[in-house]
Amino acid sequence: MSGRNPAPRRSYGGRSAEERRAERRGRLLAAGLELFGTRGYTATSIERLCATASVSTRNFYEEFTGREELLTTLHRTVNDRAARAFATAYTEAAKADLPTRVHNAVHAFVSVTATDPRWARIAFVEVGPTLDRYSQWENAIRTLIQDAVTRNEAPPRDYTLTVIAITGALTALIHHWSTQNQTIPTDQITTELTTLIVKALTPTP
């Protein structure tokens, strides 16, 4: 039995349905970044998101189950980018001393999360109930500390509380910058965090 040839997918304006859908999704992500990153998650309705993105409510629900999934997508995007930048910078400075490795990694983290106040707010302020903004950074700091111990730059001991303290400082400083004082130079944030981390790992004479 011969089958029918599938009907060709329609294109409008030279764009396929997939391309148009990807474009709509991109506009929704951009609208989420702008509105969640300025007005805030609780102050932003789906209707406002759709109006800003110039899409219908039906189109919205084709891409996301609700506002929280959109926020989660943006949150993971910025934190994944920051984590990759942190890890890459630390690895590239593998032959350097501890302060240099830490500085480069922290600078990469700050450059991603604190360059745009909207991304900083989404990463560390507008966090939904199912999001964990700490675990990823706890793992990164724990890896950094273990490397320092292996190199005999830090003494072997239980660093559980140190990891929590450093992670808290890391996120709190970016939170403060994004919500209270964006006039603080990001290089100053990098320096403060680098000093804090190195002092926490370096034995007191």
Would you give an account of this structure?
It is a single chain. Helix 1 packs across helix 4. The model is unreliable at 1-9 (pLDDT under 50). Helix content is 68%, strand content 2%. It has helices spanning 17-38, 46-53, 57-63, 67-92, 98-113, 117-124, 135-150, 160-179, 186-201; strands at 11-12, 15-16. Strands 1-2 form a two-stranded antiparallel ribbon. It contains 9 helices and 2 strands; from the N terminus they run ββααααααααα. The chain has 205 residues and is an all-alpha fold. A hairpin with a 2-residue loop joins strand 1 and strand 2.
SSE layout and pairings?
Elements: E1 11-12, E2 15-16, H1 17-38, H2 46-53, H3 57-63, H4 67-92, H5 98-113, H6 117-124, H7 135-150, H8 160-179, H9 186-201
Antiparallel strand pairs: 1-2
The percent of residues in helical segments reads: 55-70%
How much strand?
A: under 5%
Residue-averaged pLDDT, rounded?
87
- What is the N-to-C order of secondary-structure elements (H for helix, E for strand)? EEHHHHHHHHH
Largest sheet, in brief, is: 2 strands, antiparallel
* Whole-number count of domains: 2
Question: Helical stretch count?
Answer: 9
What structural class is derived from the secondary structure elements? mainly alpha
For the record, the CATH class of the largest domain is Mainly Alpha
Under CATH, the topology of the largest domain can be stated as Tetracycline Repressor, domain 2
Number of strands: 2
State the shape. elongated
Give the N-terminus to C-terminus distance in angstroms. 85 Å
Name of the CATH homologous superfamily of the largest domain:
Tetracycline Repressor, domain 2
What value does the Rg take, in angstroms? 22 Å
